[in-house]
Write a structure and sequence with these properties.
alpha/beta, Rossmann fold, 5-stranded parallel β-sheet, 3-stranded antiparallel β-sheet, 9 helices, 48% helix, globular
Length: 226
């Protein structure tokens, strides 16, 4: 059976980078919830759409988007990937207790992953990075306007190393927005990690401060992937 991997960590911890590295070495599809939502709410088609207009305001301010809306997106995608018999890695999703566990009327993402992948095939990685590092990394972050890959904070230049596209700043990486994002992570996402442990899903911690390739090597070891 295929595997479902969830990579957690505060903004700037390297969740997306590590998920992308897994896709390049293994039969894994990366569903980047943040990038998917960003493209959706900033698309020309979002103009005049009340739901997408509402979610764009949340997204651009650093507040997490409406959990019910995000849950449906991630759950539907997980089921499509499972049916195709691929592995999947989510970077930072589910982001709220509701998205993770749902309620009496809504199946949460964890229950959906357990149903379509099997509970024993859910792997959770928690990348640990101090908030001061999160602020530094995000404040210096640029994203390629073509392929969407980030430029690492330690690298200079105005063009993407992969496709040579022009780099751009995201609304999410404004220092004031980063403060809000960190608060949202502490209060709304981090509690999921404790809740996962209570239901018997192991969470493996990894130090996110070293260079990405070293973090990647550590993740491969704890996931027992070669």
């Amino acid at each position: 059976m295929s595997k479902a991997i969830i990579v957690y960590g505060p903004p700037g911890s390297g969740k997306g980078t590590q998920a992308e590295l897994l896709t390049r070495k293994f039969n894994v599809i990366h569903f980047d919830t943040g990038r998917y939502i960003e493209n959706l709410v900033h698309s020309p088609a979002s103009k005049g759409n009340k739901i997408l207009t509402r979610e764009r305001k949340n997204f651009d301010s650093g507040i997490l988007c409406t959990p019910e809306w995000v849950l449906k997106i991630t759950r539907d995608e997980a089921e499509r990937i499972a049916k195709a018999k691929f592995n999947v890695v989510f970077s930072g999703s589910p982001r709220t207790i509701f998205e993770a566990f749902g309620d009496k009327k809504n199946e949460g993402l964890i229950a959906a992953l357990s149903r379509v992948f099997g509970k024993r095939n859910i792997e959770v990685i928690h990348i640990l990075v101090p908030e001061r590092d999160s602020m530094k990394r995000n404040s210096a972050r640029f994203i390629c306007g073509v392929c969407g890959l980030p430029r690492l904070a330690s690298v200079s230049g105005n063009h993407c190393a992969l496709c040579a596209g022009i780099l751009r700043k995201r609304t999410l990486d404004d220092p004031k927005v980063i403060v809000t994002r960190l608060k949202e992570y502490r209060e709304r996402t981090y509690p999921i990690i404790k809740a996962l442990k209570k239901i018997g899903i192991a969470v493996k911690t990894v130090d996110g401060r070293p260079l990405p390739y070293k973090v990647h090597e550590r993740i491969l070891r704890v996931l027992k992937m070669k």
